[in-house]
Write a structure and sequence with these properties.
By secondary structure, this protein is mainly α. The chain has helices at about 10-20, 20-35, 50-55, 60-70, 80-95, 100-110, 110-130, and strands at about 40, 75.
Length: about 140
């Protein structure tokens, strides 16, 4: 999925200008997994291959971030709507490839019912688009 920089929250946009949108989303996901949105960015000469940042976004992106934000604390935005949109697109693509709901749920760490709901809503929206681009709610 191609996400434009301007679709990100302001702080994420600033980070994306340094390391790109894809690496910014990897950083966001990594911080979500840790449960902490704060990030202290070390100076480049203090950055080691074992540093969390290097392991999360790769050495090149981590050093770019360190050169730009060395010594600064950053609050990484959640980007919840973009993360959810990306996840939903994965669900749809996986289902269209023929994967079972159970397999998708396991792969994405979700419940089967949540996967079914996402796919069902997408199918409903597709039917609405196919009926001449608008949807009527039975009040015709």
């Amino acid at each position: 999925m191609q996400i434009q920089n301007d679709a990100l929250p302001p702080t994420a946009q600033e980070i994306a200008e340094v390391i790109g949108v894809e690496k910014t989303l990897e950083l966001v996901k990594g911080k979500r997994e840790t449960g902490c949105r704060s990030l202290y960015v070390p100076r480049p000469d203090n950055m080691h291959s074992s540093h969390w940042l290097v392991k999360t976004i790769g050495e090149q992106a981590a050093y770019k971030l360190a050169r730009e934000y060395a010594g600064e604390p950053l609050t990484i935005p959640r980007c919840s709507s973009l993360i959810k949109l990306e996840r939903n697109k994965k669900i749809i693509a996986m289902r269209q490839k023929g994967l079972r709901y159970q397999d998708i749920a396991e792969a994405l760490g979700m419940t089967v019912s949540a996967v079914k709901m996402v796919y069902s809503r997408w199918m409903h929206s597709q039917r609405a688009v196919m009926s001449d681009g608008y949807y009527t709610s039975g009040n015709a």
